[in-house]
Amino acid sequence: MQSDERPVRKIIHVDMDAFYASVEQRDDPSLKGKPVAVGGQHRGVVAAASYEARQFGIRSAMPSVTAKRRCPELIFVKPRFDVYRGVSQQIRAIFADYTHLIEPLSLDEAYLDVTDDRLELGSARAIAEDIRRRIREETRLTASAGVSYCKFIAKLASDHRKPDGLTVITPERGAEFVASLPVSRFHGVGPVTARKMERLGINTGADLSAWSLPQLQAHFGSSADWYWRICRGLDEREVKPDRPYKSVSAERTFDEDLRDPARLAAEVDRIAGYAWARVERAEVRGRTVTLKVKFADFELITRSKSFAQPVPDQAAFAIAGQALLAALHPLPKGIRLLGMGLHNLTEVNSDMPAQLGLAI
Question: Where does the record place the UmuC domain (predicted)?
Fold first, then answer.
């Protein structure tokens, strides 16, 4: 795992608890203790759900109509991304007191390499505890943290005792910890891959570790090496400050092949919502919209449209996707998968022209 010349890394993954929804409950006391969803009520998707809402099975990226059906008492709140970005900056300022090696994943989570104990607190656990204390005191919000020797396990650990939890996994316990978890929890194993693994009898990390690398390669191709390593607790990726995003996307595989234009248009709107929620979390904008289409016979094509200015909002993003889809009609065959992505990315900043925005 680590060479003898190099100290074992000490990595913390900090993940805010139901971040958007918690900010709304903090700022509006009448929402405390109630099921809250951040997002559009009539169209679009849930950007975040409070823990009270999650008890009804409501989660981020779920269509708002589905969420309302599951919980009629659900309270929808319009997103305030400027506020969330401001709180996120507060939190990152706290991180910076402990290390300069900070890799933000989104507004509400980040990796920190604290191998160098700048404040001489004595251990990575103590650093994580102090960070969580300061977040609570300075923002009135809670965060969960995972502490480990690698990024993969630190991220798993931060989710282990949510909300407001702290989990430490030492190198000696790494492989055992991963073995005990379902593969659906693994970062880098999406829902489609998790279902495929389960069909092959791979339900846990222990099941995955029983497969040889050639066996995994036969079923999972280029991803096999990653799966083989993580189930053994091996991950040598470094924490990279200001990690640049190359693209942000989302896709959906359908239970049946689709050809109906109205149905496909509705799916583009839905997938655009999923993808745009990730765009907002990543704090980026982009100038190129890409539509990914996989046909019933597994033929895969992509179509793209680039703009002079960054795509300003979800509505414009969805409209671009609809135009790319419309250009494919009449379809030669059914579609089994649609995806939408945003490329040529830049970070969100206050200098972006506000007049480009469209009402959603």
Answer: 11-190
